[in-house]
Amino acid sequence: MTTRTESMATRMGFEPGYLIVEVGHSNDCDETLRQGITQITGNQFLTGDIQEVVDAVLLWWRDGDGDLVDELVDGLTYLSESGQIWVLTPKAGRIGHVEPSDIQDAAPIAGLSQTSTFAIATDWSATRLVARKSSKR
Question: Please, which contacts does 96-104 make with residues 24 or more away whose CB atoms are closer than 8 Å?
Answer without folding.
Answer: 96/28, 96/62, 96/63, 96/64, 96/65, 97/62, 97/63, 98/61, 98/62, 98/63, 98/68, 100/127, 102/68, 103/68, 103/127, 103/129
